[in-house]
Amino acid sequence: MARTTLTSKGQITIPQTVRAALGLEQGDQLLIEATGDGFHATLVRRPRAAALQGILRSSVPYQGEEAEKVAVAEELARKHRSR
């Protein structure tokens, strides 16, 4: 169990140990529900990009993140040269 403080803006900081245990990242959303003597927070699970890999069919296999970065850089250079 961890303790946190409510700010004047109504915000709380979820301690790092709790964030790490739950795998929380910046931008994650929580559902907050008032209970009799407190509240209950539930993480709204969003699929991570890695979990989505492979759900769309392609005739070209994915070459990896590094190859993607190189392809983007080459396309930007090509567009810049044509101006």
TrEMBL record:
Domain SpoVT-AbrB, first and last residues per copy: 1-46
Leader peptide range in chain numbering: none
Matching InterPro entries: SpoVT-AbrB_dom, SpoVT-AbrB_sf
SUPFAM superfamilies tied to this protein: AbrB/MazE/MraZ-like (SSF89447)
One Pfam assignment: MazE_antitoxin
Protein name: AbrB family transcriptional regulator
Alphabetized UniProt keyword annotations: DNA-binding
Gene3D superfamilies hit by this protein: 2.10.260.10
Keyword RNA-binding recorded: no
Molecular function (Gene Ontology), one example: DNA binding
